[in-house]
Amino acid sequence: MSHGRSTRLIVALDTKDTAQAVSWREQVAGPACMVKLGLEFTYACGLDAVREAAGGSPLFLDLKLHDIPNTVASAIGSLAALRPAMLTIHASGGRAMIAAARKAIDETFPADARPLLLAVTVLTSMDEAALHETGVEGSVVAQVLRLGALAMDSGADGLVCSSHEIAPLRAALGDAPVLVVPGIRPAGSALGDQKRVMTPAQASAAGADWIVVGRPITRAADPAAAAAAIAAELETALS
Ligand SMILES: O=c1ccn([C@@H]2O[C@H](COP(=O)(O)O)[C@@H](O)[C@H]2O)c(=O)[nH]1
């Protein structure tokens, strides 16, 4: 069933090597609408290398900030020169932290170059048992809805969630949140550490705005072909 939203592809360039990240970015440049650089790359290579790896592609800077409000706000100031299109914080940092991140973005970035502030809800590597071990009772979807509502009410532009929570989030929060969805596995791909997964077509049908795909592309024998196949799957799902 079509919901009228198109789903775009973000490729996660998870490596400790700048030349490798640049090579992957060049290979996926057609099908990928954005590249994601995260903790592994940034800690290993540094912020100047993030700029080099992203090249001219829109940048999803996935550093999942989670600290006291003052520190998160200051960190966002330190990242501003990279001009990311999206950046992440953890929703579990709470209202004051999310609001401080919002304020830092609004005060640090020019109005026409503000990144989307995305709040990570429950990591896609966690199932219900893993969630319960952290002391959170109830279902994963209930926790995603709780954190999603808090984040949007505190100033986030969107949420990172799994495909399984898209419909409940849309029912609870409407069309406003930009939903960015990792935990994507083309049919037959290894799950790795991901627990809450769907295929690209399923995520598109569920209404993801963006899907994030790393290893199924970057560990493929032909990353360009793997990315093109996922983009084609998204096109087919929409028609
Ligand atoms: O809940 C989350 C939040 C972020 N991620 C990130 O997405 C990619 C997924 O990579 P795969 O290789 O396709 O599993 C990775 O960079 C994570 O840091 C996530 O998976 N889940």
Automatic annotation (TrEMBL):
Reaction catalysed by this enzyme: orotidine 5'-phosphate + H(+) = UMP + CO2
Gene Ontology annotations of biological process type: 'de novo' pyrimidine nucleobase biosynthetic process; 'de novo' UMP biosynthetic process
NCBIfam families given in the database record: PRK00230.1, pyrF
One GO location term (cellular component): cytosol
SMART domains linked: OMPdecase (SM00934)
InterPro entries, alphabetized: Aldolase_TIM, OMPdecase, OMPdecase_AS, OMPdecase_bac, OMPdeCOase_dom, RibuloseP-bd_barrel
Pfam families to which the protein is assigned, alphabetical: OMPdecase
Keyword Membrane among UniProt keywords: no
Identification of the protein by name: Orotidine 5'-phosphate decarboxylase
Residues of the active site: 62 (for ompdecase activity), 64 (for ompdecase activity), 64 (proton donor), 67 (for ompdecase activity)
Keywords: Decarboxylase, Lyase, Pyrimidine biosynthesis
UniProt pathway: Pyrimidine metabolism; UMP biosynthesis via de novo pathway; UMP from orotate: step 2/2
EC nos: 4.1.1.23
HAMAP family (alphabetical): OMPdecase_type1_B (MF_01200_B)
